[in-house]
User: Fold these one by one.
Assistant:
Number 1:
Amino acid sequence: MTETAHPRRVFSGIQPSGNLTLGNYLGALRRFVEMQEAGVPALYCVVDMHAITVWQEPAKLRAAIRELTAAFLACGLDPARSIIFNQSQVPAHAELGWILSCVARIGWLNRMTQFKDKAGKDREAASVGLYSYPTLMAADILAYHATEVPVGEDQKQHVELTRDIAAKFNHDYGVDYFPLPAPIIEGVATRVMSLRDGTRKMSKSDPSDMSRINLTDDADAIAQKIRKARTDPDPLPETYAALAERAEARNLVNIYAALSGLDRDAVVTEFAGRPFSDFKPALADLAVSHLAPVTARIQELLADPAEIDAVLGDGAERAAEIAEPILARTRDIVGFVSSR
Ligand code: AQP
């Protein structure tokens, strides 16, 4: 009768809402590949239905879905080992999303910080979907009885809400049906910050392109953005702990550590006492050496969109095979009559 009764299964998604950033790469994509290598069964989803919670021009959305799929593959996700698909091809997400929106409470959604951030000042003008997004995200995870959800720090609150929704469903219907999934937030780059403002996360929808490194940036753009990244006038200290009050400096050290695989203290020790004008070119070289092969591979894959669509179609079939029986049992638990 505990969540441990459910076999391990990973689910995570990324929105096809524009250029992927270094934040998505370090906080999510690279983690997905590590989990794949660890051999845990996993589904990685291009969450196109989440993307339309804000306006998406259809042709651009279509292109973004293929680009994100290409990025999944270019980073090392293997469709033979991980299920890669787009959300809208598996109707179980929408159906379970509705059921779970009847389980979640308005007060719970009112506490979601991402809605407040994304809706901005004019909440009345935000889409209903943007507000209820977390119940669809809960459905994404629970439709597969996923037990682990690798995400960046910003998504922790949504995974915790998913646990609350699963627990309330189980309680209300007197079942032990949905597992309580755990957010997996690991590594040194769980919250990559904007290059212009160390208090804001690096985001693909930030109006300033200089605030982020895009996976599609060329070497010159990466070098320029890192050179212009905001820091303070002090040199690098002797210890990582001494960066506690220096958000921008700390962010660059974190990025260096994540890309190099060194621990943060080792990075600081290597550059201790040196100015950021020494550190930044080293960081730019490191970023280019990691991202250039990924970018090149994305472009190669995009030359054959039919192949990308085939990966998504095959993934959607396999995803639906898992989700449909879980949905069928959910309908039964809820009390729907299924006689078709
Ligand atoms: N800055 C970040 N640092 C670490 N992880 C991050 N993630 C996003 N930004 C960072 C992680 O990437 C995954 C996919 O995110 P998403 O695109 O579905 O939505 P998001 O979190 O809203 O990402 P963005 O870049 O901020 O997109 P927009 O601007 O469209 O809202 C998640 O696991 C997320 O934690």
Note: The first strand starts at residue 10 and ends at 14.
Number 2:
Amino acid sequence: MCGIVGYLGEQNSPREVIINGLKKLEYRGYDSAGIAVIQNSGELKRVRAQGKLTELEKALEYEPIQEGHIGIGHTRWATHGVPSERNAHPHHAGKVSLVHNGIIENYLEIREQLLEAGVKIESDTDSELVAHLISREVEKTKSIFSAVKNVKPQLKGAYSILVLWEESPNELIAFKDGPPLVIGIGEGETYLASDVQALLNYTQKFIYINDQELVHVQFSKVQKQPSTANFTTETSKLSKEEQLYHVSKVTLYNQRFEKIEPKVATINWSADLIEKQGYAHYMLKEIYEQPRAVAQAAAPHIDLEKMEVQLDKVGFDINNLMDLEKLDSKKDFQSTLEVFKNIQKVYIIACGTSYYAGQVAKYFIEKNARINVETDIASEFRYRNPILSANELVVTISQSGETADTLAAIRLAKNLGAKTLSICNVKNSSIDREAHGHLYMNSGPEIGVASTKAFVSSLVILNLLSLALGKAKKVLNHDDEVIFLRAILGLPSQMEGILAYDKYFSEAAQKLKKFKGFLYLGRGVSFPIAMEGALKLKELAYMHAEGYAAGEMKHGPLALIDPQMAIVMLAPQDDVYEKTISNLEEARARGGKIISISTGENTQLQKVSEYYLSLPKAHWSVNPMLAVVPLQLMAYHLASALNHDVDQPRNLAKSVTVE
Ligand code: M6R
């Protein structure tokens, strides 16, 4: 769950590329950071600092790194060893420098082996041990590529690693098994990073590295020839250095160390999408982007003329070829309809906020398609020996597409013979590449650690999925389909209205922060939204919050209620409204202070509530997307009032690529 960046080339400054890249990756970890560059003098220089990246930037002012053309950098989320400068990456062993994202599971064994051999180990990390293994090997082979090739099979666990060797400043090695790693292709220069966002300022062309692959990047300067594209008649007038052009060669190897052909993908995200664009925090920007996000999620899947849901293009690439042009349609591809008609049961698997989206979807699919749905937290599913079969559909939801537990769950589901469908925001991410069928949240980059726009976008996709399943099963008629689709199409403008609560919560935050705890209650589709609201408050405001099914309160949690407890009651006027109100009264009778969220001018609720928020009147299936917005704003403003770092809450990271 760290972020890594590497650069080999001369057009850019490695120091700048790495620091800029790490800034975009800080969401992955932010307890310490470091950089190492082989300077033009030939000396390998490293600077590290505990704390956020700004601390590293300060350290670089005192201890500047000179220019060079190769470097690696790291921003850390500690696993082995406390956050400190000593444990920060890059780790050095002899003339080898290495950055690592992940966990080396057999590190104790390696550590003992190294200590026995008399190696001096400086940090408490598992990563430094890998640097030593490579350093010892390079002493023998005198080739950094061969050294890595020999060490790789000794490593167990999850890793993405970049390695350079002071003796060979024109080579950079990368290899991975687990955490993501991409190669950015420049003109005569090569970039490496944990994700594409780190490199969008430099390139939009990427190669996604698969597990077990090894990358050898080599840099050289070649004399311009008349036949080269760079040749001009002016060439002869140029200085010797100017007559050279830069070549960066990227060679990919598979697990058996055979050369493989890289596939280059072009990403259409632009660099400005990952800037704050005037907002105080990414999270606030992303909350405000939600009306656009839901529209973008829905657009590819609604035929506006026929008013029909369109998931036909999604299809199921049964052999997981991922290259739709090469598919033999009969053998490898099944249409969505073909698959959906035969589905007997749906499993939805995810973590955190994405899991709550899955829980809302259980209501959607069971109501609209009358198919039994089980939801599971990925870390539970993967270890509970699930029973799956070919007519079962396993849907995974993941904004990043890199969450380790969700990735393991989809792999397991495939091995057990189920059809898999991923809903991701990041295209070509590991989970996306693993699935038979692919749907996208399409919400643009989400940088704030707390997920917001990806959540509402995934709810839209799940809503549409339930309609497509309902149609395939002939449970849903066209009139009903039109009602659902109209509700989705109305979402952007209704959300705009709710964003006006921003001011309301920024004013209320000073009073709300005095509560000792928060209970979020709801029934039906509002129950998972209650849990999502509580999660937002926990992760941002570090306050105790619980999401509960309102009807379950009397079975225990009522004992928690006193005047210091705020009750956030989700009570849209749906078919369980009356029952929700009874639960609200039970909580109020025990002294709880009520913050209620309902539909329209609800005077009954306004009278009994400390705070009352009104949602626009909407179809039940879009209430969750509307009701979550005030909960996001409330968590955001409470965290700001408490002076917490909203975009980078303590102890957390955006994508959890370790177990
Ligand atoms: O990238 P994913 O959707 O797989 O991430 C899952 C969770 O880690 C994520 O939703 C987490 O719970 C967020 N911090 C919640 O705001």
Note: The pocket of 5-amino-5-deoxy-1-O-phosphono-D-mannitol is lined by residues 351-354, 398-400, 403, 406, 449-451, 535, 539, 655-656 (CB under 6 Å).
